[in-house]
Amino acid sequence: MILADLSTDELRKRLSGEGLILGIGPFSFEVSCPFPQVELALVRLYADYPVLDRSEFVDFSVSISGGRGVRKWFRRQAIFTFDGNEPFVPLPEKHAFPLLEWAMNWCVSMHTFHYLLLHSAVIEREGCAVIMPAPPGSGKSTLCAGLVNRGWRLLSDELALVSLRDLSVTPFGRPISLKNRSIDIIREYVPEAVFSQVVHDTSKGTVSHMKVRPEHLVRIRETARPRWVIFPRYEAGAKPALSQRSKADSLLELGRNSFNYLILGKQGFDVLADVVDACDCYDFVYSQLDDAVAVFDDLVAGRSHEA
User: Fold this and answer.
1) What does the buried/exposed string (b/e) look like for 177-211 if buried means 16 or more CB atoms within 10 Å of the residue's CB?
2) Using an 8 Å Cβ cutoff, are 154 and 212 in contact?
3) What is the CATH topology of the domain spanning 115-301?
4) What is the DSSP letter of 213?
5) Less CB within 10 Å around the terminal CB: N or C of the chain?
């Protein structure tokens, strides 16, 4: 059964009561949240995800609840609770769905140790994965959203799950988070894309989430092998340019972008070193999505754009 199979009353009952259990790649999330805007966003963005029954193991129980006391009525709040704790400060109620998305990322990044976790987007073509780590404001999510609507498969917009055994990357396909001007850019670039309601004045500015293409979810159990590590950067007016990056520097930067590299110790170093050894590493500057798509397609075809 998928979420779209639930009636409105049944979905609301689960969200307000015992919880809605969603299977997302290798993880399961039990979601409890009474807010109508969260229900609407789940229907819009998670309609094709499997709903698990209560006999299934739950990896993470996520609750977004309303404020207490005067906050029930005045400047209403959304509060994230995990295992009885509140790791984040309360946010305005209108931020409830972005809070849920951020909370799900936090659950995986802080409590998963059977993968090497890298803060990066990951896309795939012909079994080969591109790992794209980048700081906020680099255009990483915009580039990812453009590519996965031009023939590349989304594995994740936020987290690369790298196997400690064979380096394969496991998909964790969830809606792509877009911010500020990127929202309008992707709306224009992909007119058929489905978005959540735009939410203003968050800690990241204006945000909206783009639905994962259904054909990508069908393959959400299909892993890929790392082939390229690319550090993208948007630069207004720039021509697309790949420049080779040293493997030593790429390893150091990937380590800085890992959530559990230090916790895994020597195993984490060995796996990260093997990933870098298996990949071609580049910096990539771009300004136009069509140009970027052409460069990435040429990578697969073996044509070089190196500066």
Assistant:
1) bbbeebbebbeebbeebebbeebeebeeebbbbbb
2) yes
3) Rossmann fold (3.40.50)
4) P
5) N
For the chain, what are the domain ranges?
Answer: 3-111, 115-301
pLDDT-derived band at 74 (thresholds 50, 70, 90) equals: low
Helices (H), the chain: 8-16, 36-45, 96-111, 140-147, 181-189, 214-217, 247-256, 261-264, 266-278, 289-301
- Sign of the torsion formed by the C-alpha atoms of 36, 42, 44 and 48: negative
DSSP state of 94: G
Helix axes 96-111, 36-45, angle to 10 degrees: 70
Could you tell me the pLDDT band of residue 71, with boundaries at 50, 70 and 90? low
* Average predicted confidence (pLDDT) for the chain: 94
Per residue in 13-51, pLDDT (tens digit) is: 999 998 999 999 999 999 999 999 999 999 999 999 999
Q: What is the pLDDT of residues 252-304, one digit of tens each?
A: 999 999 999 999 999 999 999 999 999 999 999 999 999 999 999 999 988 65
Which of 48, 59, 54 has the alpha carbon at shortest distance from 19? 54
